[in-house]
Amino acid sequence: MKQTMFERSAFKLTSRFLQPAPKKGMVIVMCGIIGFAGRRDCAQLLLSGLCALEYRGYDSAGIAVQSQGDLQVRKSTGRLKNLQDIVSRAPVSGSVGIGHTRWATHGRPSEENCHPHIGQKGRIAVVHNGIIENYAALKRSLMERGVQFSSQTDTEVIAQLLEYYYETDLLTTLGKVLPMLEGSYALGILDVSDPDTVWCARRGSPLIVGKGEGENYLASDISAVLEYTRDIYILDDGEIAALSAGEIRFYGPQGQALEKEPTPISWSADGAKRGGFRHFMLKEIYDQPQAIEDTLNHYIDAQTLTIRRESMPFTKEQAQQVENITIVACGTAYHAGMVGQNLLEQLARVRTHAQIASEYRYQDTVYSANETLIAVSQSGETADTIAAVRKAKNNGHRIVALSNVLGSTVAREAHAVMYTLAGPEIAVASTKAYTTQVLLFEILALDLGNLRGLISERELQDCLRELLRLPGQVRSVLERAGQVEHFAHSMRMCRDVFFIGRQLDYCTSLEAALKLKEISYIHSEAYAAGELKHGTIALIDETTLVVATATQERIFLKTLSNVEEVRARGASILLITDKEIQNEGQFQDIWPVPGMRDIYSPIPATVYVQLFAYYMALQKGCDIDKPRNLAKSVTVE
């Protein structure tokens, strides 16, 4: 039979499907997927899973359940509670289903644009994370063939394609349809012809499968299934899986059967719950002493005061040969990378450059021999960071990943991985992931300095001994939360906040400004303190709050001079410092950082500004865990 132009395009795209990642503009969308196949009623389990995933997107949500040869669908715009109310009024019953919580990309948040999407014949339901870049052309071709669409989303195209090209079974159909899709996807699929099975596939967007007793699970994030299982299969790009109550089958890009081994996950299910705290963000701020302690114990032997060699990414030979390090990251992780740049240059004397991943991936980079790229990503799935990793690998660089998620894409693509042991982080604004990323840079810089002969064994032991005190020092900062809350209340009418500092304190200021604007929507900026007089000081007046961080001994007096400059313009001043201060009455407040080496101060200083951002947002009535226009873990390019 003669092929149509539309069908021929599928075969032209097959080679693209077989690649490890899409070649153009890879995007990973911040939405959540849950799926279940078992023998018990699954509606409430799906809703519970979506609750754990709501931080990934909260414009709308929906579920679809196989029920007596039909697909029962419930959808709602807004927060998950709206969907829960609908399901309580109009229950659905079935033991196989999928769910989705959405962060809108194609089409406004509305019921018709909400997932799951159903083909016009009512036989296929699809939930989708990612972006189908050629959806407009695919949609146009289907409409020319009489297919009617009910939404503006790219996802509906997938459901309609699967129905239009449906062959003997869904696996065969997926083999034909998936090559047509350009872009990224993580898919959960129901087929009324196969009522006991949830199908899934991924390319460029994360997806995991959980193995239970007589039931199995699908999710875009481990936190959604922690309550039910710790045995996780991580799908690789191009792979397909079929889940039923008693079986999980895996297939490669060409439909060939695969054998996969599960990865045990050590995270506690309690880590994904609020545990009595008003917000996840506050809980995760208070989780930091334990997260830091767990991470320290993984990398440092407290009895011998040595670094565990098996956990480190550099051998002595590699450490001595490395000439340049580039750190790539986005957002909060980029600020951790800036701390890393300072520490690696100071302690290991390696030329280091921290760069925003979205800039690195497109710039005309000048490469050098013996260069290492360090990729920092909490989720390990950040699109721009993954693209930067692949660019560097193509140019022969060694890749080291810093991630919080076992088996994430960044971790699997790297030559070596350092994991933070922060546990699940649910609030959109990162806290414990950031401080443990900074901690990894502290350990890495000390280790490289030692391996390169710049830090003696005795000096290293002294540094590690003090580093092991860090959990207690963070606890001492948390004990001052009342002071921070009181100050935030006194500044409740403040509309502009400037954070200033030098060197490591400037890195802390950048993270402080981001946290405040993320969750309170207060205008905040960070500046290197010495730059104020080069233009920025024009913005300072009596309505401005200036937060100065001054913990670096060598430049402490320089920073205080800059503080005097803004005081002369009438600004209110908060000082965060580990130094003794004369004339304390000149400041609106002083937050003391526990005495320690200058290189360790960014972590406790950051805990103060996390608390400040939280309490400023709290008194404004902001949705702290789910700030407007934002979602967790990964980015859209």
Could you explain how this protein is built, in words?
- With 637 residues, this protein is of the alpha/beta class.
- The protein has three domains: 261 residues, Glutamine Phosphoribosylpyrophosphate, subunit 1, domain 1; 197 residues, 3-Layer(aba) Sandwich (Rossmann fold); 146 residues, 3-Layer(aba) Sandwich (Rossmann fold), CATH 3.40.50.
- It contains 21 helices and 27 strands.
- The strands form five sheets. It has an eight-stranded antiparallel β-sheet, with helices on one face. It has a seven-stranded antiparallel β-sheet with strand order 5-6-7-8-12-13-14, with helices on one face. It has a five-stranded parallel β-sheet with strand order 19-18-20-21-22, sandwiched between helices.
- It starts with a helix and ends in a 17-residue tail after the last helix.
- 54% of the residues are buried.
- It catalyses: D-fructose 6-phosphate + L-glutamine = D-glucosamine 6-phosphate + L-glutamate.
Strand order of the largest sheet: 3-2-4-1-10-9-11-15
Low-confidence segments, given as residue ranges, are 1-29
Largest sheet: 8 strands, antiparallel
CATH architecture of the largest domain, by name, is 4-Layer Sandwich
CA gyration radius, whole angstroms: 26 Å
Give the CATH topology of the largest domain: Glutamine Phosphoribosylpyrophosphate, subunit 1, domain 1
Chain-averaged pLDDT: 88
GO molecular function: carbohydrate derivative binding; glutamine-fructose-6-phosphate transaminase (isomerizing) activity
Subcellular location: Cytoplasm
Protein name: Glutamine--fructose-6-phosphate aminotransferase [isomerizing]
Keywords: Aminotransferase, Cytoplasm, Glutamine amidotransferase, Repeat, Transferase
